[in-house]
Amino acid sequence: MHISTFFKNSCLVIFCSLLWACEKEQLPGEIHPQTQNAYQNIEEAQAAVEALYHLGYPSIALEADAKKGLPLAWSVYLSRLIESEASEGYYPDLHQGKVSSPKVQELSKKLYTSYFDAIEQADTIIARINDSPSVNVQERERLQGEAKFFRALNRFSLLRTFGAHPTTRTSSTLGTEVALYSLVIKDLQDAIARLPHKTFIENKSRVSAFIARALLAEVYIQMSGLPLRENKWAEATAILRPILASGKYQLLGHGPSEDLSAYNKLRQNPTAQEYLHTWQAKDGSSRSIFSFPSKAKGWSNVKTTVAFNAYEPSKLLQSLYAEEDIRAKDRQFFHSFFKVQEGNKTIFEVFNPAPYFWLAGEGNSLSAPRVNQLGVYRYAEILLMFSEALCQSEATVREEAVDALLDVKLRAMPHLNREEEKAELMALGIDAFLQKVWLERFRELVLEMKMGYDIARTGFYPSKVQGSTEIIFIPLTEVHSPSGGALPRNLRLPLPLSPTP
Predict the structure, then answer these.
(1) CATH for 200-283+372-452?
(2) Where are the CATH 1.25.40.900 domain residues in the chain?
(3) Residue 66: its pLDDT value, please?
(4) CB of 331 within 8 A of CB of 346?
(5) Residue 262: enclosing H or E segment and its boundaries?
(6) What is the pTM of this model?
(7) Taking 80 as the threshold, does the pLDDT of residue 8 lie above it?
(8) Domain 32-195+459-501 top-level CATH class
């Protein structure tokens, strides 16, 4: 070998060795270029994931705007099944079907921004935690599972609100609904694999595989309806079965008085065994500010801040309940009177139904809940999803589906004979049975604000037969507003004209 070549090669080896040594011997606190985005400890990673519990959908679900109302209620406002005393903001335009108005555009932008804030936070967590050697494998799996759950939840919220939307906040290209749903499904499957099958209490208030299963079932059911008709009913049935088989959840029973009904127990305890999870707000007003009409601001013994009634069931919605239905009775889901003290006199104030379920206490000792909490995915909803999915997947009325429906219905109407009701339901054709399930969803989940989504995916709207107590479902295309105008066909909001970066 020529001596100059040998010298050059030797210098190169020495230089590379020195460079490698410098990279290995980092100064204390210095971050290696390859791991500069890594979490430095488990506490930092947990704090990042904790933020997801207060971003996007959970934040929107708990928001109560004293001037405009409930942003999460946009679809039931648009369906005209829920009314509000709000005179400003988005409600008046939604009630009239004016989805392109500036105020509805403002709401669209708010929802779009909030959901993407959460998606981007989850993206960052998932990317950073993979490069975090300070977080052990078990914790990394759990935190990834939680982040993927929230990314899916907020992506699904975008889909139900807008339909097809950009895959990133500022992209000008829309993803197809099928492709976007695939992202949601993959995240939820990963979350189920990583999260423990524990209750809200057992899992120390963290999201678990059970709520991920419930959300994935709802995703499959939504995909199986309009506009996609993807036929994911069998998948929805299968993903729900482990919740039913776990024995960890149950429908609450009634106590000896109406004050101790199952619905009042659920009202007083948003972490009861019937709830799969509970959202909790750090601060802000609770939904209790909408539990009285605006005129109650002057009632001296009302012990909660009053804005206005932002969630009044329409006359049609009220008519869906049978007279004997416990849920329809005063001071269960809704209330319509209050004893007002005026000096030495007691006056009964009567008003249009307002949500009683969002108040704490009972009788005339009603107040805002001490903590702003919201129980989600009740076991009743799991049973109703299972009943519909099983019936649809097997294209026949199965006994399991009937039993699941009756568990929910007979809790509300315990005077009915189970065997007689069961025989009647088993004799129905599939379409007639599905309408019974839809009706029970409207009655039981009236406060979950999902009626608009149900109407959009089924393409059917509830209607009362004139001169009868019978409730049927008619095609959405045949439904008109009181003023004669047609309801929006897809019950969605338009994408914001100028989404924020």
Answers:
(1) 1.25.40.900
(2) 200-283+372-452
(3) 95
(4) no
(5) helix 262-268
(6) 0.91
(7) no
(8) mainly alpha
